[in-house]
Specification:
This protein is an alpha+beta fold. The chain contains four helices and eight strands.
Length: 197
């Protein structure tokens, strides 16, 4: 891992799964494409700061009649010093939505797992007891609260200020972002946390 100062330019692209964010990280050692899911929280703009790069690798994808080869950086941490927000513009582009990459990887993993027989067994008695206790806890919640509890998992109930868990799937991450916006939360890019407005 290396930490390096740079500028991350984020733009919003409209794809078949809706809008998604991609970044271009400009540093003194080169320019890298960034497609980490944490970018899905950010507005379109230019972000100056210190970036910890976990991995630099080449990535290829085909779109239309083009084969795109890019040098990509996977970020471990972002510490922002300055944000220059710009008016969002919905770009039509030949960029591949990172969600498609995640689905391809999940499909390959599922195929590998299905070819390996599982020797683990579940005690049905434990399963019934845990389900009964969960039902009792959820009986006081509205349908909307139950939906939010399922969407946010361990983050539920939502606090006035918190960070999203970047280890969830990209689909869930995007759904959480949209739900937070509808609940009047705002993303603070400097601290990378959501606050209720």
């Amino acid at each position: 891992m290396i930490s390096i100062e740079g500028r991350l330019n984020i733009k919003i692209i409209t794809g078949i799964h809706g809008p998604f964010r991609i970044g271009s990280l400009q540093t003194e050692i080169g320019e890298f494409s960034v497609k980490d899911k944490i970018l899905d929280q950010y507005d379109e703009g230019s972000y100056q700061g210190l970036f910890t790069i976990r991995k630099i690798f080449s990535s290829t994808y085909s779109t239309g009649s083009r084969l795109v080869v890019e040098v990509r950086a996977a970020l471990e941490n972002i510490s922002l010093a300055n944000v220059d927000e710009i008016e969002p513009v919905q770009h039509g582009s030949l960029e591949q939505d990172p969600l498609d990459e995640e689905k391809e990887a999940d499909s390959k993993t599922a195929k590998m797992e299905s070819s390996i027989e599982s020797t683990e067994s579940t005690d049905s008695t434990e399963l019934i007891h845990s389900t009964d206790s969960e039902d009792e806890d959820q009986s006081d919640l509205t349908a909307e609260e139950l939906s939010d509890k399922k969407l946010f998992g361990l983050l539920w109930p939502l606090q006035d200020s918190f960070k999203l868990d970047p280890t969830v799937s990209r689909v869930t991450f995007r759904e959480q972002r949209e739900r937070l916006k509808s609940l009047n939360y705002k993303f603070n890019p400097i601290g990378q946390y959501w606050t209720r407005t």
